[in-house]
Amino acid sequence: MAIRILINLARFAVTYVVATVVVFLFMRLIPGDPAQIALGVNATPELLEQTREQFGTDRPLIVQYLEWFGGLLRGDFGTSYLTRTDISPMVLDRVQVSLILVLTAMAVALLVAIPLGTWAAVKHRSFSGVAIGLGSQIGVAIPGFLAGILLVMIFAVGLGWLPANGWTAPSVDFGDFIRRLILPVVALASVQGAILTRYVRSAVLEVMSEDYLRTARAKGLSKNGALLKHGLRNAAIPVITVTGVQIAALIIGAVVIERVFVIPGLGSMLLDAVGNRDLLTVQSVVMVLVAITLILNLVVDILYTIIDPRLRRSA
């Protein structure tokens, strides 16, 4: 198992380095001079040249990349072209908000999807199983931002039970933090929960037809007992794989949800930086999002190795 984990760590490192190269080059292909954008169209050539020197954009690309990559390794994201302030404190502040939102939404999605998907598989010929399958199909078809808008219209504007937007740090007012967290988490978790419910249902249905489950029942276990003791662990393997993929989708969905609910996370920071053409901030935030996605997928891969003994033996 240790060898398998080391392979996953090496894959993570290589993927992240390749991603830094791709993001850096892509940012340099976007038309526009950061110095010109920062100073405006009326800037003199002398001032433009001085600003390019301050930004470091007058140096060769390889030098710019190595300096930026070295800063990433040290946790130094550089200085914003627009505000001339250090990007690192802003990113560290925003990443906490985004992680709370994404991880809470994924936890809620799994807590809903696992029991519902299992029940839908066990009762797939009954009304409740068909209803859960139909409901999950509808949930998959609804975009996250639309779910957010509908939740605001119903629970914030219509009923007045919850605030429509904004963010309160848990250290400031934990009660208000929970109240403002509910709607965006439900908006994100509803779509992901529907997707995961369908995968759990399919995985459990496949396991229920396996020979080892029939053997367990022949030895005296009930249908549910055999499923709980022998089936769910095997059904968890494809679900964990899909969860790793859906985490990336959840992070992307959080970018839009943060804008809908006016949440000061990485998504809002990224959209503001794109609108202001603050390219260094854009590429730094993108790399933080890439790092979060890769780390979460690394955790999923390690869990996959722990659960599946075949991978440990092959390693």
UniProtKB/TrEMBL annotation:
Organism of this sequence: Leucobacter triazinivorans
Major localization class: membrane
Domain of life assignment: Bacteria
Keyword terms, alphabetized: Cell membrane, Membrane, Transmembrane, Transmembrane helix, Transport
Family, per entry: Belongs to the binding-protein-dependent transport system permease family.
GO CC terms of this entry: plasma membrane
Protein name, as recorded: ABC transporter permease
Domain ABC transmembrane type-1: 95-300
Membrane topology: Multi-pass membrane protein
Database matches in Gene3D superfamilies: MetI-like
Regions that span the bilayer: 12-30, 99-122, 134-161, 181-200, 235-262, 282-307
Compartment(s) of residence: Cell membrane
Gene Ontology MF annotations: dipeptide transmembrane transporter activity
CDD domains: TM_PBP2
Entries under SUPFAM superfamilies matching the protein: MetI-like (SSF161098)
